[in-house]
Specification:
Strands 1, 2, 3, 4, 5, 6, 7 and 8 form an eight-stranded antiparallel beta sheet that branches. The protein is α+β, with helices and mostly antiparallel strands. The chain is built from six helices and eight strands; from the N terminus they run αββαββααββαββα.
């Protein structure tokens, strides 16, 4: 897949996401009362087919996720993903419980949606504030998926020419065997102002 950003633009996008996710992780750390560890963001430009292949290679066979659609100077979906088998563990973290408690489906969905709201919305709003560009977000949605169905779940519109910017970050709770992934899928066909915003931000940095 072709190169859509210069090296400087690429570095700015990674740094912005790093800052946004760092603030989100701090919020999760307060809830879980333990340190949240983050990987370095990985940024790729992919076709839907390439993204599906990566998801199949890197993610568990069954996933629970929380997605949030956003629009503005860039549009797409952000998602929090983790193994379906560990979803209740994550809910217990959200509820502040050290031991497993019985959780019904409605409570599980509410807790996961709140987690998605904390992590995803916090990250998007941080990026929006740094760039001084508004971003509108919809309410988080919980879902269950297999890796080969994930692009259909996260791509707002699928066309043969769609190119997505895939940002992937792994996170884990330091004292628990619990980890997940943050994924941002941005459709470049819908984002003519994205590159201009990043370019203008770079120019402003160089002038300051």
């Amino acid at each position: 897949m072709g190169k859509f950003l210069t090296d400087d633009e690429y570095d700015v996008v990674v740094e912005l996401v790093n800052i946004g996710v760092g603030k989100s992780a701090a919020s999760l750390s307060q809830i879980a009362n333990e340190e949240v560890l983050l990987s370095v963001p990985v940024l790729d430009f992919l076709s839907l087919q390439e993204a599906t292949k990566i998801f199949e290679e890197r993610l568990p066979q069954m996933l629970t996720g929380v997605s949030q659609e956003f629009s503005g100077f860039f549009s797409g979906k952000a998602a929090l993903l983790f193994p379906e088998s560990r979803s209740l563990d994550l809910v217990n973290v959200m509820l502040g419980s050290e031991d497993e408690i019985e959780i019904d489906a409605e409570l599980e969905e509410e807790a996961l949606s709140e987690l998605g709201n904390i992590l995803l919305n916090n990250c998007l709003s941080t990026i929006s504030n740094i760039l001084n560009k508004p971003v509108k977000t919809l309410l988080p949605q919980t879902f269950h998926s297999m890796p080969n169905k994930l692009t259909a779940q996260l791509a707002v519109e699928e066309t043969p020419d769609t190119v997505i910017m895939l940002l992937k970050i792994d996170f884990s709770l330091k004292n628990r065997d619990l980890s997940g992934h943050l994924v941002f899928v941005i459709d470049f066909n819908e984002n003519g102002s994205f590159k201009k915003t990043i370019r203008d931000y770079l120019i402003a940095l160089e002038a300051s």
